[in-house]
Amino acid sequence: MKFKAQSSEFKWQDRNVFVTGCTGILGSWLTMALVDRRANVVGLVYDEDPRSQLVRSGYDKRIIRVRGSVTDYALMERVFNEYQVDTCFHLAAQALVTVANRAPLSTFETNVKGTWTVLEAARRCPTLTRLVIASSDKAYGEHEDLPYSEDTPLQGRHPYEVSKSCADLIALAYAETYGLPLGITRCGNIYGGGDLHWDRVVPGTMRSVLRGERPIVRSDGTPTRDYLYVEDIISAYILLAEHLDDPAIRRPEPCPEPRRRAAKGRGQAFNFGLNDPKTVLEVIEAILEMAGRPDLEPIILNEPLHEIRHQYLRSEKARRLLGWEPQWTLEAGLRETLAWYREFFQNSSPS
Fold this sequence. Notes:
This protein is of the alpha/beta class. The protein has a domain at 16-189 and 229-274 and 310-327: NAD(P)-binding Rossmann-like Domain (Rossmann fold, 3-Layer(aba) Sandwich). It is built from 12 helices and 13 strands. The strands form 4 sheets. A 7-stranded parallel β-sheet has the order 3-2-1-4-5-6-11, with helices on both faces. It has a two-stranded parallel sheet with strand order 7-10. It has a two-stranded parallel ribbon with strand order 8-13. α1 (25-36) links the parallel β1 (16-20) and β2.
């Protein structure tokens, strides 16, 4: 992996790090990166999936795995205190728009209740020094003015967007009210090896192409998104965690309580995107060309979907305050991802 080097002052070695959602695409790669930095990682696992990148890589044997739900407050309080957590990355979520539309209650339960449960347990943990909350560009809802900046209002309208808007606002409330040392990440569309949600455009298209099938497009193919390779997102998460003590990202307002004085101004959100938005069809065509199968013309269903049509981010704040820059172009990231899926299907049973 080609992660940006950590800051010279910050050391991950021997830090106790708690990662919720450690077996998902983002959680897997983040956990692997933290283990490589010699952190002591505790990972929350809800459902075991032997196809997870964390399991396939063998890194699951190098962490402490805790089984259970992110909504279980007693469990979260135990993990934070028993393992003397210094840093938490909260990634556990129901992450699919289509599933959220079908099952809004379970989505709200995981994404909203799960977030406040982690925040409350973190608030009561005396060893915690930093907390990164994984959000999404979907928290903004839909706006006419593009690209979105961190000041764009949070106004989700459909279940998945609303769950992210709510989680963001709850996190900000904990930062402002209790001085919880946290930062929020809002990323564009994640892609990369290890994503097994075939409804998403990149893994779904790659599976179809590698099987010699025409890819399915649920929309009309024109929605625009900012696609960001998983390794760039991992570097963003790690950089944000490392910089939560940096005075440059704190607000100047006074805080009366001791812990709030130490943590004043935290709770900021940061956008992370490639700043090169593409339509769904443009991404699919790039994959078809890359795989040498331009003959597999997409099947466009043009179904009515409760999804934002055009959405992409301005990442200038992350560049200026964190020194973050994406290292992967869309073409390079797609090539790496296609190679991952090619190997995955060669060594896995059909799925």
